[in-house]
TrEMBL record:
It comes from the Bacteria. SUPFAM superfamilies: Bet v1-like (SSF55961). InterPro entries: START-like_dom_sf (IPR023393). This is SRPBCC domain-containing protein.
Length: 163
């Protein structure tokens, strides 16, 4: 893992299997703007946030109660000079027990401070993993971006969700 990759960790009072199952329900915690299957190795899905951010992701690993990994196959941002900043990045959800609770550590390998999108992306992941996914795991209700909010610039949505 690149030491400068983005990571965030949550702790929940649920089982590792419950956390794993929730991660696979990407539309319930990240965005309703996702097309395609999202849970099994080999599944590919497209995230399209109103043309502002579009990427294709392949699920590369799904070990129940332990780990989920995704590979970004292609990516386009409308707010960066280099639209392909995420291409080849791996997103990993490591799941395990810690002090009687379940820990989920999300890492986007390759999302580094040198990326033009780093601040926006780090803010968004902090919300979607740290709040939305956590809520989905603990209450059954995530806070994904909806198709209606997709008209709002990604950075405004991420900042609005944090306040």
């Amino acid at each position: 893992m690149t030491e400068h990759s983005f990571s965030t960790t949550i702790l929940v009072d649920r089982t590792t299997r419950e956390a794993f199952d929730a991660i696979g329900k990407v539309r319930a915690w990240w965005s309703e703007c996702i097309d395609g299957p999202t849970a099994e190795p080999g599944d590919e899905f497209v995230y399209d946030f109103a043309g502002k951010h579009r990427c294709t992701i392949r699920v590369t690993e799904a070990v129940p109660g332990r780990k989920v990994a995704w590979l970004v196959l292609d990516n386009e941002f409308d707010f960066t000079r280099d639209e392909t900043e995420w291409v080849g990045n791996t997103m990993i959800f490591d799941i395990g027990g810690r002090d009687g609770r379940t820990e989920v550590r999300f890492t986007q390998q390759g999302l580094v401070p040198a990326y033009e999108c780093f601040d926006v992306c780090a803010t968004a992941w902090s919300f979607f993993v740290g709040t939305s996914l956590k809520n989905l795991i603990t209450t059954g209700q995530g806070l994904p971006s909806g198709r209606d909010i997709a008209r709002v610039p990604a950075e405004e949505h991420a900042l609005a969700q944090r306040s």
